[in-house]
Every structure is written in structure tokens, then in C-alpha cells.
Amino acid sequence: MVEIKEVVARWARPLAKFNECYCSDPSREYRFVQKRSSAPFFLILLVAFPVRAADLTGYVVLTTDYVFRGVSYSDGDPAAQVGIDVSFDSGIFLGAWGSTVDLSNPPFSERDREVIYYLGYNHTVSSDWSVGANYVAYRYPAADGLVDYDYDEYMLTLNYRDRAWFEYAHSPDLYSTGYSTDNYRAHVEWSMPQRITASAGLGYYDVSGLNGDSYSYWELGVMRPFGIVDLDLRYHDTSHWVPIISSPERADSRIVFSVRFQF
Q: In whole angstroms, what is the distance from residue 197 CA to residue 193 CA?
């Protein structure tokens, strides 16, 4: 069991540094929307909880390509990622996750870091089923350009025996455009010999309000643990590329290898 104040002391300083707001530089006057920071909210929430953490997990991931909803966020190049997750006996969980990215759309944005904060609640319905709801904040600290790409999503999840997941995510305002988006995703896992876990996922990202188009994406992969290290090999593809969200190159099919270290 880990005291919440110990978690804050251990993680508050590096998270705050990683989430520095580039718009604090007064010379960047062309930034018409001020960057939002969710780190203080989550840190205050941690201190305010009068409970002890049931589980604290940290991890580092090295991957040959960072793929999100079928689209490469690292322009086909390797990425480094780090995260922390805190869960409670009550079903409440929260955490933060960061990755290097390579998202360029000049003159609108040059993004090289992504930070995600999340807060949610899982409720066990029966021995087989559980449901959840969570809030996710996507932030791009130190982004350079004319557009604020920070956005929020609200998710509902359905879990069957930790083997099948169904997810619905809604963003009321993607990229500060005033347009909403909806994402639907299903994911399944099954055990194989030699401690290998195979998995497959299928999703549909409705961004028609933003650009008049939407797309499907899917993945198929295997994972094998070796102590605190997980090795993952995965195939990703999409139905087609859509403007603003991706490009022909970033939405193309690809094979990704990742190494995850948990501590």
C-alpha cells in the first residue's frame, strides 16, 4: 500500500516540468488559444483523496512507431513513452502518460510531445462484466503553431472477463474547432501456448463534423511477458486517410514492435 502524499511527492515535479506551457512565452503572440494544463487538477485530486492507493504502477515503453487509432503519431519513427497509473479499492483510477510525437502541419502546428491525463471509475456488475466511465485530457505542451490541438474526451467502457472490451469516446470540441467527434472501439484478447497473448481490435472514428469524413481502423498482435518486460508485435491499418486527422503516409499499414518495462 502506498500513501497518496508519497505518490505526489514522487511524481508532481517531473510531471509539472514535462507539462510546461509554451504559451507563457510572451513572444509567442500568434497563439490565439491559451494552452490548458490538467496536471494541477490531478495532483490536487491525489492529495484530496482520504484513502490509500490499492495499486501504483509505472512503466516505460520503447516502440518503433507510436500508433493511435490506426494513425502514426511519430511519423513512422521510434517513440519513447512513460506512464504512471494509480488505482483504488473503490474502483477509482487516475494516471498520466507521455510520449514523444512527430506531428507537423505547418503553419498550424508542430508537436513533438503528447501528455495524457485520465481519471475514471470502474464498477463490477458481476463476475463476468464490469462497466466504466472516464475523462481523458490530451495535451501537447510546447507545441509551436497557430492552432491549439489540446482536447478532452469522455469515455464509456464495457469489460467482459478482462478478455473483451467495448469503448465509446466523445470529444465535444476537437482541436478547438467547435466540432465534436465520436470513436467506437472493440478489443479482444485470448491466451496461447508459451504465455503468449494474442489480441485484435476494430474501431471507427467519426470525425465527419470536422472534415466531412470518417474512417475505420484495426489491429492484430501478440504479446509475451518476460518478467517485468513485455514484448509486443502488432499490425495496424486503416480504411483510408482523412484530412486534419492523418495523411496518406501516416494512415498506411504498418508493423510495430514495442518493449514495455514495468516497475
A: 8
- For residue 43, give its domain range: 4-262
CA dist., res. 158 & res. 191, Å (int): 20
Of 58, 18, 2, 55, the residue nearest 261 (C-alpha): 58
The answer to pTM > 0.70 is: yes
**CATH number of the domain to which 174 belongs:** 2.40.160.40
What distance in Å separates the CA atoms of residue 5 and residue 11, rounded to the nearest whole number? 10
Report which of 129, 132, 148 is spatially closest to residue 140, judged by C-alpha positions: 148
Per-residue pLDDT of the chain (263 residues; tens, 9 = 90+): 444 444 444 444 444 443 433 333 333 333 334 445 555 555 555 555 545 557 999 999 999 999 999 999 999 999 999 999 999 999 999 999 999 999 876 556 678 999 999 999 999 999 999 999 999 999 999 887 778 889 999 999 999 999 999 999 999 999 989 999 999 999 999 999 999 999 999 999 999 998 899 999 999 999 999 999 999 999 999 999 999 899 999 999 999 999 999 98
**One-letter amino acid for residue 52 of the chain:** R
Q: Are the beta carbons of 175 and 148 closer than 8 angstroms?
A: yes
The domain total for the chain is: 1
Q: How far apart are CA 174 and CA 210, in angstroms?
A: 8
> What is the residue type of 106?
P
